[in-house]
Description:
alpha+beta, 7-stranded antiparallel sheet
Amino acid sequence: MDNQNFSTTIVVDQSPAEVYKAVNNPRAWWSEGIEGITDQLNAEWKYQFGDNHRSKMKVIEMIPDKKVVWLIEENYFKNAKDQNEWVGNKITFDISKQGDKAQLVFTQIGLTPADDCYKACDWAWTGFVQQSLQSLITTGKGQLEWFK
């Protein structure tokens, strides 16, 4: 089990195009504390949550209505033993049509149960994807407040 990457899945009534558009707007579903362009190939951007967590991301793959991949170039967790725990991980958003619905599979390649942050990251990513991102896709408004 230690080699399993974290993953969570949602299925929505919206189109793959609507899912793709929402994924590429992480300010609306992950954090307003994002600086930089998030919806262009090779764009680099930064995420910050207070003094607890900072990351630098790069958009390394974009296939319209099908896939988005972010590479984590830098990372800092206030209480982590290993500040490089996320560095080199890839966050993938695989989008597919499932009948008249769209499925989104979120995976953080490299985030495994052996990592210090796994339990907290599992909880956070599950909430961001299954609550906030799903709400953005289905209602047009993310639920950033769920995390506060």
